[in-house]
């Protein structure tokens, strides 16, 4: 595929960003887990803002989960395209991609607990 100019070209950047947003929209429309993760992330960020805790770790954890869910969706699509019939290696690829999302989600849960639970507990118990 031929490049259509410098990576710093704004027109090229916007075109590439448009393709990327098309992928995000497709995942949101077609993947229930992605929708759940988007809204769970939004809730976690809103809670972090309300509790006035640092947003960066929560935002980074949310971004990691969503990014890996997009990669998982891409892996599943490519595997289905190239191996429409069941194959042990196709299963490995799909399971490993899903496992990456699971590991990231577990990490995000830990970040959420460490970051949000103490101030939330103080707010609930009135000891803050």
From TrEMBL:
One of its GO terms (molecular function) is kinase activity. Keywords: ATP-binding, Cell membrane, Kinase, Lipid biosynthesis, Lipid metabolism, Membrane, Nucleotide-binding, Phospholipid biosynthesis, Phospholipid metabolism, Transferase, Transmembrane, Transmembrane helix. It comes from the Bacteria. Gene3D superfamilies: 1.10.287.3610. The keyword Membrane applies. Pfam families: DAGK_prokar. InterPro entries: DAGK (IPR000829), DAGK_sf (IPR036945). Its main location: membrane. It is found in: Cell membrane. It is a multi-pass membrane protein. The chain crosses the membrane at residues 100-121. Belongs to the bacterial diacylglycerol kinase family. This is Diacylglycerol kinase. It comes from Deinococcus aerolatus.
